[in-house]
Amino acid sequence: MINVNEVVKVIGIGTAGGIILENIMKDQMDGIQYIAARTDELALDLSSAGTKILLSFDTKEGLESSPIDCESDPESIIEIMTAIAGADMAVFVAGFGGKTGTIATQVFAKVARSLGIYTVAIVTIPFEHESLYRKTLAKAGEINIRKLVDSVLVMPNDQICNPAGRGILEAFKAGDAIISDALQSCIRKEPSK
Ligand SMILES: Nc1nc2c(ncn2[C@@H]2O[C@H](COP(=O)(O)OP(=O)(O)OP(=O)(O)O)[C@@H](O)[C@H]2O)c(=O)[nH]1
Ligand SMILES: [Mg+2]
């Protein structure tokens, strides 16, 4: 549990991260700052996050490429730094398996660590029926992110989104509610002594 005076920033990264963030924001947790980081400008415009970062990383590289280094886009890095600076705790939320979420989360984690911020990553793992490419990218991302943050919560979509008898959007909503609960238990604040 963290102190009530501490600054918590929750960052939704990529498409899934952005959508999950929107659902999390509906739970209206006090004293949390929300940041959306996406490569899709239109979607970013529609986000209700207080801070928005348009990511311009080259995420088109293949699986062979190592996670993009911070040096690859100084402007994005400065923007990320400015957005997360001042946080005592940064929570990254992303769907692993997509390029933006998987790669940019690692960049955020490196930047946060360089600023001495306590870091948590809450990431989903693709459904079994998704492509081998996505599952492999997610696995590589999971191995990497464990080295880059203080705490990791891996949430397999197969377990949290139960599509039985419902459409995929409804299943995602159910999964997002579980992620929101997990987030709340990570950041529950206690009164300062
Ligand atoms: N729980 C949950 N998972 C989602 C949702 N949308 C997508 N996913 C999962 O997240 C993974 C990553 O997909 P995206 O978020 O679309 O990928 P991205 O990070 O935007 O990356 P690119 O579009 O490839 O640059 C997918 O393979 C799904 O497993 C959602 O609303 N909720
Ligand atoms: Mg996307």
Architecture overview:
This protein has 193 residues and is an alpha/beta fold. It has a single domain, classed as Rossmann fold. It has helices spanning 14-25, 41-46, 74-84, 99-114, 132-148, 157-160, 168-187; strands spanning 2-3, 8-13, 32-38, 51-54, 89-95, 118-125, 151-156, 189-190. The strands form two sheets. The chain has a six-stranded parallel sheet with strand order 4-3-2-5-6-7, sandwiched between helices. Helix 4 links the parallel strand 5 (89-95) and strand 6. It is globular and about 45 Å long. The two termini are 13 Å apart. Mean pLDDT is 87; it is low at 62-71. Magnesium ion (MG) is lined by residues 14-15, 98, 100.
Short description:
The chain has 193 residues and is α/β, with parallel strands linked by helices. The chain contains seven helices and eight strands.
Order of helices and strands: EEHEHEHEHEHEHHE
Instruction: Based on the coordinates given, report the CATH architecture.
Output: 3-Layer(aba) Sandwich
Radius of gyration: 16 Å
Amount of helix:
40-55%
Low-confidence stretches: 62-71
Major sheet summary line: 6 strands, parallel
CATH top level assignment: Alpha Beta
- Give the overall pLDDT as a whole number: 87
CATH topology: Rossmann fold
Strand content: 15-25%
Give me the secondary-structure category.
Answer: alpha/beta
**Alpha carbon gap, first and last residue:** 13 Å
Strand order of the largest sheet: 4-3-2-5-6-7
Bound molecules: guanosine-5'-triphosphate, magnesium ion
Sum up the overall morphology in one term: globular
Q: Supply the number of structural domains.
A: 1
- What is the total tally of β strands? 8
Specify the CATH homologous superfamily: Tubulin/FtsZ, GTPase domain
Number of helices: 7
